[in-house]
Specification:
Elements (H helix, E strand, L loop, with lengths): L2 E5 L41 E5 L4 E7 L2 E12 L3 E6 L9 E8 L4 E13 L6 E6 L2 E9 L4 H8 L6 E6 L2 H10 L15 E12 L4 E11 L2
Parallel strand pairs: 3-9, 6-8
Antiparallel strand pairs: 1-11, 2-6, 3-4, 4-7, 5-6, 8-9, 10-12, 11-12
C-alpha cells in the first residue's frame, strides 16, 4: 500500500479521521449507542461486554520515533466480538501489551476477520515488544517504519535536546506529544522559568503498513 503525507503547505484533501483504532471494524454490542470497534484501546472492558485473553492472532510492530505501531491480524469466531490491544497493568519499562477479546452478552456465530493497528508511546532503544495473550508472552521484533522517507528524516532530525516529534488523532494531540518527547533541561532550578515551543512543521500521514490516518507535528523549544 502506498503512503502519502499532507504537510502544512497542503492541508486540503484530508480524509475523515477514522479514530485511534485505525481501520477498526465497527462491531455492534448490547448498547446500540456505543461504537465499539477493533483496536479501540479501551482503558477497561466496554459496558455490556465481558473480557477474555485472546489467542490465534499474528502480531507485527514498527517504530516511528517514540511511537510504536502494533498490528494484530486474525479471525474471530463470532461476528460481534471485538479484538483489542491494551497496555498490560504491569509497572515495567518498556511496557508490555495484552491482546484481548470483548464478548457481548448475545453472540452471533460467524467468522470475521480482524486487522487493526494501535499506536502507543514506546522507548526508542528496545528491539522487541512483549505482547501477551492466552497462549503466553510473545517477543515481537520491532522494525523501523520506512515507507515515507521524508517523515523518517523528520523524526531523525528531531533528536536534539530542544526538538521533538509527535503523532496524534488531532493536531493538538500531536503537538502535545511532540512537546512531551523533549527531555527536560538539566541544571534549571527556577520554578518560574517559562519556555516557548514553536511548531516548525505539521501535516497528516495517510496509508502505509499501518493504514495511518494521523496528524504529526515537529516542535522546537526556544530557550533564549
Amino acid at each position: 500500500m502506498s503512503m502519502t503525507a499532507a504537510t502544512s503547505e497542503h492541508p486540503e484533501g484530508f480524509p475523515h479521521d477514522q479514530g485511534a483504532g485505525g481501520g477498526g471494524v465497527p462491531s455492534p454490542g448490547p448498547d446500540s449507542k456505543a461504537s465499539i470497534h477493533d483496536g479501540g484501546q479501551y482503558p477497561s472492558t466496554p459496558a455490556g461486554y465481558t473480557e477474555i485473553n485472546g489467542s490465534g492472532a499474528t502480531y507485527s510492530a514498527q517504530r516511528l520515533g517514540t511511537t510504536l505501531l502494533i498490528r494484530a491480524q486474525g479471525m474471530l469466531p463470532y461476528l460481534n466480538e471485538v479484538a483489542d490491544i491494551r497496555q498490560a497493568p504491569l509497572r515495567i519499562s518498556p511496557p508490555a501489551f495484552d491482546f484481548l477479546i470483548y464478548k457481548p452478552q448475545i453472540l452471533a456465530p460467524a467468522l470475521r476477520k480482524f486487522d487493526f493497528v494501535v499506536r502507543v508511546g514506546f522507548p526508542k532503544e528496545p528491539q522487541a515488544v512483549v505482547i501477551r495473550d492466552a497462549q503466553g508472552s510473545h517477543q515481537v521484533a520491532i522494525a523501523q517504519f520506512s515507507p515515507l522517507k521524508s517523515v523518517n528524516a523528520l523524526v531523525e532530525s528531531s533528536n536534539s535536546g530542544n526538538d521533538g516529534f509527535g503523532m496524534g488523532d488531532t493536531l493538538d494531540e500531536a503537538i502535545y506529544t511532540a512537546i512531551s518527547s523533549i527531555p527536560p533541561l538539566q541544571g534549571t532550578s527556577n520554578p518560574d522559568q517559562m519556555f516557548l515551543y514553536k511548531v516548525t512543521e505539521f501535516g497528516r500521514m495517510v496509508g502505509g503498513f499501518a493504514a495511518l490516518n494521523t496528524f504529526y507535528a515537529r516542535v522546537t523549544r526556544q530557550t533564549d
